[in-house]
Amino acid sequence: MLKRYPLFLLLMILSGCFGGRGVYHTIGRGETLWRISRTYRVDIQEVAEINNIKDPTEIEAGKRIFIPGVSRVRKVVPYKGIPGEKEKEDKIVIERDRFSWPVRGELISQFGLRDGSRHDGIDIKAEEGTLIKAADKGEAIYVNSGMRGYGNIIILKHKDDFYTVYAHNKENLVKTGENVEKGAVIGSVGDSGNADGCHLHFEVRQGKNKRNPLFFLP
Ligand SMILES: [Zn+2]
User: Fold this and answer.
1) What separation in Å is there between the alpha carbon of 124 and the centre of ligand 1?
2) Cα–Cα distance, 61 to 36 (Å, whole number)
């Protein structure tokens, strides 16, 4: 039996919660990712994912990072070891075994900012017709041929309110409402929509938040 998903839910999933708004912050001496995130009152995980920072010790003075959802640059007061004030750890969550790679190939575009605008997924280059495999067990809640920009697109719903999006497909090989196992073939790679050459555009959403797929892949 096909379940119906309301259009607003799909639009919410596809539109995300904020646009390209944000500022570039140049990291100063002694600043940590946690302190920067706290100063701007943004989630450290979101800052890490949009900037592809998997290891917080990677951050160094002079580098620029993007702070999403804010409109002005702030001064970050570095930790000075005030008695009684403990510096919090830069804790970033990476779940490498949550999803599996939908196709194997060269990563040609990362999640985050690309030429000043947001790229909500990763692009994996593959030959036309390469089979696309479900990144996890789930249900195909949205299958559309010819969605603006995305071309042939499939959205799977998984546990913990996660969704995965597969776009620019040559063919969609599942139907709306179908349940698939992890690794099951769901489509093939193409260049439908506004794709620049054959590749899979792959997104991970949790609720309405856009997540960095590389934080969830082996
Ligand atoms: Zn893409």
Assistant:
1) 8
2) 12
**Count of residues in the chain:** 218
pTM above 0.85, yes or no: yes
Given its phi and psi angles, is residue 129 left (phi above 0), alpha (psi -120 to 50 degrees) or beta? Answer: left
Please give the distance of CA 9 from its chain centroid, rounded to a whole number. Answer: 18
Domains and CATH numbers, the chain: 7-15+96-215 (2.70.70.10)
As given in the structure block, the two tokens for residue 2 are: 């096909």
Task: Tell me the pLDDT tens digit for each residue of 6-45.
Answer: 555 555 555 544 455 899 999 999 899 999 999 999 999 9
What's the CA-to-centroid distance between 106 and ligand 1, angstroms?
Answer: 13
**CA–CA distance, 168 with 175 (Å, rounded to integer):** 16
